[in-house]
Automatic annotation (TrEMBL):
Keyword RNA-binding applies: no
Domain BHLH: 91-145
Record-level GO BP terms: axon development; positive regulation of transcription by RNA polymerase II; sensory organ development
Compositional bias annotation for Low complexity: 61-72
UniProt-annotated stretches for the region Disordered: 25-95
Originating organism: Eptatretus burgeri (Inshore hagfish)
GO cellular component, as recorded: nucleus
UniProt keyword list: Nucleus, Transcription, Transcription regulation
The protein, known as: Basic helix-loop-helix family, member e23
Length: 248
DNA sequence: TAGGCCATCTGGTCCT
DNA sequence: AGGACCAGATGGCCTA
């Protein structure tokens, strides 16, 4: 289930802030409440660890069946492998397993740390981000921050030159694109709050206009009952960008 | 029930 | 030699 193909296919589901291609099937932090399906320290990962330790104790773990299981036939390599296994002291194997478990737990702890600093709904009613979703969201968040920083630098430059501020807005709109070569989607998405805050600085009228565009059914393509409340999705094409410029 | 996600075990490879 | 890292295999849990 984790072949490179399926991974890249899954990765394609995520746009800026993890929006899928076909209509906002699922957005980060917008999953429906599921009760107790988010793992806790006791019932989740650590609980699984307990399972594993039990397996270790009885040496009935799944991996014992690996490798030669695909063909069902014992090959020369398998014989050699079995020979190695016999030569490997059991205590050594157990310590290697424990070390690997510890390593994976450290990795998961780091992922938890990452989840805690990226923007999505940290709520008990929202499912924990998967590993792949965490990494993709973090990447996109970094890219978005870089864009914002760039825009701010440009704005400061304009201010220093004594030019009018609204000049910066069209470029801000134009910069709202997925990183070139990474995404191939016809839509972009970003937090509505971000838009409203940003655009309100320049013109409340423009902000209203943008809000109108973003909430118009003709402009939306979510077509879903689960349309996001906190995210605005806009077509990401030239004509729309031109349309936006007309507003500002 | 299929599919997604995860933890674990394992053997191979690389690095110190 | 021993540890870190990696990827494949497998089974469990959960959700749609």
């Amino acid at each position: 289930s984790c072949s490179p193909d399926s991974l890249s296919e899954r990765a394609g589901l995520f746009d800026l802030f993890l929006v899928d291609k076909d209509g906002g099937r699922e957005l980060v932090g917008m999953t429906e409440p599921t009760g107790e399906d988010f793992p806790t320290e006791e019932s989740g990962a650590r609980g699984s660890e307990h399972r594993g330790l039990e397996q270790t104790g009885g040496f009935a773990g799944a991996a014992v069946r690996s490798r030669s299981g695909s063909s069902g036939e014992q090959t020369a390599e398998d014989d050699e492998s079995d020979d190695k296994k016999c030569k490997e002291p059991r205590s050594l194997r157990l310590s290697i397993n424990a070390r690997e478990r510890r390593r994976m737990h450290d990795l998961n702890d780091a992922l938890d740390d990452l989840r805690s600093v990226i923007p999505y709904a940290h709520s008990p009613s929202v499912r924990k981000l998967s590993k792949i979703a965490t990494l993709l969201l973090a990447k996109n968040y970094i890219l978005m921050q870089a864009q914002a920083l760039d825009e701010m630098r440009r704005l400061v430059a304009y201010l220093n030159q004594g030019q009018s501020v609204p000049v910066a807005l069209p470029s801000a709109v134009a910069s709202l694109q997925p990183p070139l070569g990474v995404y191939d989607h016809d839509e972009i998405a970003f937090p509505a709050q971000h838009i409203k805050r940003t655009h309100a600085r320049w013109s409340t009228g423009s902000a209203r206009a943008l809000h109108k565009i973003s909430t118009s059914p003709a402009r939306w393509s979510t077509g879903s009952a689960r349309a996001p409340h906190e995210f605005v999705r806009l077509p990401n094409d030239r004509s729309f960008q031109t349309c936006l410029r007309d507003f500002f």
